[in-house]
Amino acid sequence: MEFTPNGKEILIGDSSGVVHFWNLETWEKIREFKANTNQITKIAVSPDGKQILTLGVDINSDKTPGLAAKLWDLSGKPIADIDFFQNTIGFLGDVSFSPNGKEIAIVITKNQGTFKFYDSSSGKLIPRSTTNSLSGFNFSYSPDSKTIAFNGLSGIKLLNYKAKSDFIELPADYEKEINQMKQKGFIDLQYSADGKKLL
Fold this sequence. Notes:
Layout: E1 2-3, E2 9-13, E3 18-23, E4 29-34, E5 40-45, E6 51-59, E7 65-73, E8 78-85, E9 93-97, E10 103-108, E11 114-119, E12 136-141, E13 147-152, E14 155-160, E15 168-170
Antiparallel strand pairs: 1-2, 2-3, 3-4, 5-6, 6-7, 7-8, 9-10, 10-11, 12-13, 13-14, 14-15
């Protein structure tokens, strides 16, 4: 599920591939649209609230299941079928808009992790940078868009993104405030609003 930037609506994806819009003031369902043939695993809303990104399970023409990433406008009108990923592990992955809303990032959990970037206006792949050596569950942009925290089977990695170049992996020298937590096996993570901590 995902809140709209204005905090007035919440979007919920269900196991049948439908996205439901709920008004948080009246608790009434406003509308819905069919996004995937099967369950929706992730939803993201663009910073300006005008686009929706879904990641869900689809069956392709060969009757092979996989994760399909799709871009929509706020009414549910399709903008682009971004990508289809086969041979995923447990249909795990994550999607997000960059903080400036210009790019879409997708990470898919595979034997060799897939990390790709797309133009949010067209849905086309940005060929300048992919990271394929990591298997990942999810990621989080820093508020300034300069760093992405990447959570995978090998723990948390910080990736420094520079325009027109590949990711450069930063040393994972981070201080854990709760020492009982293990480095590996995190399911989710998120930057704090000031960009100084990972939660």
